[in-house]
Amino acid sequence: MSRILEAKRVVTSQMASIASDIPDSNPDFEGLGMLQEQALQLTKNVTAYLNSLANLEEAIAQQTEIVMKEMNGSDAEE
């Protein structure tokens, strides 16, 4: 359960980071170099967010597997 909560925390922090990297209306990128730098940073943040979602999915799958084993074990005892 703690792994799921940790993964959710990471996903939330990544979303906040992505939102802060998106420029306000009428952004001034100060040339092509700055535009490329901002696009690269945004791409890195989106990639980190997707990796966090994958970790969350894995943690949920592992917890679900444990719960299913416990449920099957209690069914066998009855």
Describe it.
- This protein is mostly helical and 78 residues long.
- It has one domain.
- The chain is 85% helix and 0% strand.
- The protein is built from 2 helices and no strands.
- It has helices at 2-21, 32-77.
- Helix 1 packs antiparallel against helix 2 (32-77).
- It is rod-shaped and about 70 Å long.
What characterizes the major β-sheet? none
Order of helical and strand elements: HH
Classify the beta-strand content into a percent band: under 5%
Percent range of helical residues: over 70%
What number of domains? 1
* Number of H/I helices: 2
Shape: rod-shaped
Oligomer: single chain
User: Which structural class fits the helix and strand makeup?
Assistant: mainly alpha
Organism: Paenibacillus sp. SYP-B3998
Protein name: Nucleoside-diphosphate sugar epimerase
